[in-house]
Structure formats: structure tokens, C-alpha cells
Write a structure and sequence with these properties.
elongated; mainly alpha; 3 helices
């Protein structure tokens, strides 16, 4: 049915958006780690806070922020 295909298309779009969001968060985490390696902790902290805004349950971002704050 046309209605069913609209729902399927909407569902597919949601799945695609979720994948793109995950990739975005992964890239942000990689950037934060690069800044930490370069000892640019302020920039890393800014990025990690952005990650937590997008994905509050990100254990990796929480862990990295904890490493920065315990320095």
C-alpha cells in the first residue's frame, strides 16, 4: 500500500540518520583524542561536551572528560 511504503521510507530515513549521527559522534571522539594527545585539553573538553550533548550516555566521552578533569 502507498501508506505502508511511506512508513517504510520514513523508517529507512530514521535508520540512515541514526547511522550518520553515530559516525558524527565517532569523528568527534577521534578529534577529542587527537587534541588530548597534543595536550590541548581545553579543545578536547569542548568537543567532548558537544558529544555528551548529542549522546548523553556516551561512556567514552564521559571517561575522557574524567581523564581531563583528573589531570
Amino acid at each position: 500500500t502507498p501508506e505502508g511504503s511511506k512508513e517504510a521510507a520514513a523508517f529507512h530515513d530514521l535508520i540512515q540518520q541514526a547511522g550518520q549521527r553515530r559516525e558524527y559522534i565517532t569523528l568527534l571522539l577521534l578529534d577529542a583524542k587527537k587534541y588530548m594527545t597534543a595536550q590541548n585539553y581545553k579543545q578536547a573538553e569542548t568537543i567532548l561536551k558537544r558529544v555528551l550533548k548529542e549522546s548523553p550516555s556516551s561512556e567514552e566521552a564521559q571517561s575522557l572528560l574524567q581523564q581531563i578533569s583528573s589531570r
